[in-house]
Design brief:
mainly beta; 10-stranded parallel beta sheet; 1 helix; 29 strands
Amino acid sequence: MTVPPGPPRTILLGISAVATVVALSSTYVLTRGQAEDTAPRTERNYANLPPDDFGGPVTLTPSPSSSESPSASSTSSVRPSADAAPKTRSSDPANRSGGRPSGQEPREGEPLGSPPPGAGSPGPRDTGVPPKKKLRVHRGDLVIRTPGQVVDSLEVRGRIRVEAPNVTIRNTLVIVPTESETAGISNNNGNGAGMLVSNVEVRAENAAPGVNGVVGHDFTLQSSEIHHVTDQVHITGSNVTVRDNWFHDNYHFESDPYQDGGASHDDSIQIIGGSNITIADNRFTGAYNAGVQITQSIGDVSDVTIRDNLLGGGGCTVNVAEKSRGPIRGVEIRDNRFLSDQRIDGCAIIHPSSTKISHSGNVWNDTGRPVTLTRG
């Protein structure tokens, strides 16, 4: 029986070589993984929230005697009285006194003025970038994806996005581009827990609605100066400590596109969700809407401690609103000194009757008299 000849040896060798290449290529694809995306990721867009989510403005309700009484309702905006219009002050050449930085002209009105720091209050000597610190300029956004990375001694002319755990940002100036309409520093994602921001200064390049300071959750902000933005801090979740900072000179606009053309709701700190939040030993001046605004815009809020601060600004300086989510549990406000610069005289703390506030040791800074709560 004749056996048909097999394929030539050269053909078999060629087929074997091709199969080997295909196998090796498949292995390489499986092991190398996807290339890292270097483009910044999109943040939560707060412009899509209801208007009061940038502040929850105090509403003035005329009494039968035509006097003004405050309310914690966050349904409508109010304008200041004639004698409570935003004040102007001369600029400080070093941009450290709370005055408007040289060359920064707001679109509508000046940021609210900031009185000089009192004894023991954070100010230009102990917040922000240390004097004589040499900074290296980084142009454009800085996206951090390396766990434990330390950013030190930079002047960032853009935004910092933290997308890795346990990142430290220190001794750094962040100048937020006007057209960015977002925060200077953010870890508002699922990867940036444990962020530490220390001795940092954040300000907008020029006045514009929507430029904020620090946004996120699971972070510590300390010994920093944030000014000439709309909101200095937005807390979007749990485990946040804000201590030893100087917040001043918020930008305020009577026509703000993020408020459907109404007045801007600038706050020093706004808490829109989360628990285990401590605000201690800070200095607040210059916010139009509130020094500390607590809402439950994206989730329940609980276990908030506000202690040992110098607090000022706002219609009412501390404004607590429930936003139909029910009472806020575990709010403690103690041992704070309040400036007498509210747009509503004597309204240091306002809250709905269903949210119980634990308070003690809160006094007016100028007289030392006890602060009383206002129900709204």
